[in-house]
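note to self — DONT lose this again. spent like an hour looking for the file last time. sequence + predicted structure for the chain T wanted, 96 res
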Amino acid sequence: IALEYEDFTLDLYKWALSVIYTRSTDFQKLDEDTGECVTKRVIVPFFDMINHSFDSEIYHAMDEEGGISVFNGPAKTIPAGAEISINYGDFPNEKL
């Protein structure tokens, strides 16, 4: 579907931003050239379906090649069919 310039509205822009920000997450990665930690916002399929819990010990990370992994904090078994949640952080709903 091709959109013309006139088709772009403030409401459409806000909708597009909300889609990006509600389905993406920040990952920190070490920049090999500078040695600094940089943050990248990425969209990971199905990652946006993981629910939040302040009690969660599950975390996520990005490796040097950009591969994304989800880890279970302390080594313990997660039962089949159990809900997996991660801690989004202490942010207001407007930020999330």
